C-alpha cells in the first residue's frame, strides 16, 4: 500500500468518525450517554471513554515516534507494508468482528466514573489524531515504531498503529451507534 494512501484513508475515516460523534453523540443528554443496553454491556459514554483511554496513550506515543523518525532522518517512503503482528492486531478490532473482547482493567471504563465531557474529549482526541496523520506523511511508516499499550514489550510499525487506531475507533463507534438505535 502506498504510504500516502494509507494516511489519506486514515484521515478520511477519522473525519467520518469525528462527524458521527459531533452529530449523533454530542447532542445526547448525560442520561442517554450513560444508558446501558444491559448491565453487562457498555453505554455510549463507556464506548467513547474506552477510546479516550487509547487516544490518551497512542496520540502521545505516535507523536514521539514521529519526532524520533524526524530526528533520525527516516523520511517518508512510497510504500508501507504491514507486519504480521500489525495485521493480527488490526483484525482483532475489525468492526465486522462482533466477537466480544475483554478490555484490560485499566482500559475498561465500566470500572470507573465516566466524566460528562466524554464526547468533547473524544472529538479532541480525533482532532489530535488527524493532525498526527498529517505530520506522519513526512516520515517512514515502516521504520518508526510504537509500543503496544497492552503489551509494552511489543512494538508496531507506525503505519500499523494508524490502521489499528482508526479500525478500533470504527468498532466502538459502531457499537455506540447500535446502542443509540436500540
Automatic annotation (TrEMBL):
SUPFAM superfamilies noted in UniProt: DinB/YfiT-like putative metalloenzymes
Gene3D superfamilies: dinb family like domain
InterPro entries given in the database record: DinB-like (IPR024775), DinB/YfiT-like (IPR034660)
Domain DinB-like: 17-176
Any one Pfam family match given in the protein's UniProt record, by short name: DinB_2
Protein name: DinB family protein
